[in-house]
Amino acid sequence: RFYLEASIDDKYGIIDLNNNVILPFEFAKLSIVSDERVYGNKEYMDCINYLYNFKGNKVCETSFDWFYSLENSDYYIVSHRHENEYGLCNKFGKPIIDFKYKEFRERYSNNKKQYYFMARNNLGAYGVVDIKDNIVIPFIYDNLYSDNIDNGIIAEINRNYYLIDLDNNFISDFKFGMNR
Predict the structure, then answer these.
(1) Do residues 52 and 42 make contact, with C-beta atoms less than 8 angstroms apart?
(2) Which among 2, 20, 43, 63 could bridge 48 via Cys, Cβ 3.0 to 4.6 Å?
(3) Residue in 63, 94, 58 with CA at minimum distance from that of residue 76
(4) Whole-prediction pTM value?
(5) How far apart are CA 67 and CA 65, in angstroms?
């Protein structure tokens, strides 16, 4: 299935590729987050966004500022609230990981067949947690970088860079600075 966000007279809805209306044009703000979920609100003055199904029914009473759907993840959605705190919720808006992280970047491990999250805590330290918020890599790093978590994670401490794996094992250090 493929859907598009569309508008008529400054109201938003969802259509398919044949111009069939899937979700009526009654939203002030709207964004598709999965094959069956959208987030947004129906009032222009409403700063709170809700999660809706494609029938226009609100599926959670919890408000969020932003949603991001994770691929192939049973519709888990990364979200954050007004205080720039990130967490994880399921497709019904129920929090899975509390909204306590100041940064939250997902990476999928093909080797371990699950998602991991490079996160920054309230103290500014970076670490990695799994989908159940278990600490996989302790929050001791100044920053973490990775495009492919299975090939390693670049960990920064005091402007020194190291390559570590998902078990926090040291793989190698870099003798030169990095342009990040």
Answers:
(1) no
(2) 63
(3) 94
(4) 0.73
(5) 7
Question: What's the rounded Cα separation, in Å, for the pair 7 and 76?
Answer: 27
Tokens of 42: 């129906």
The CA-based dihedral angle spanning residues 7, 12, 13, 18, taken in that order and rounded to the nearest 10 degrees = 10
Cα 86–Cα 151–Cα 165 angle in degrees, nearest 5: 70
The 3-state secondary structure of 68-96 reads EECCCCCCCEEEEECCCEEEEECCCCCEE
What are the pLDDT digits (tens) for 101-144?
Answer: 998 888 888 888 888 989 999 999 999 999 899 999 999 999 99
Q: For residues 3-13, b (16+ Cβ closer than 10 Å) or e, as one string? A: beebeeeeebb
Query: Tokens standing for 141?
Result: 């790093």
What's the sign of the alpha-carbon dihedral 93, 99, 105, 110? negative
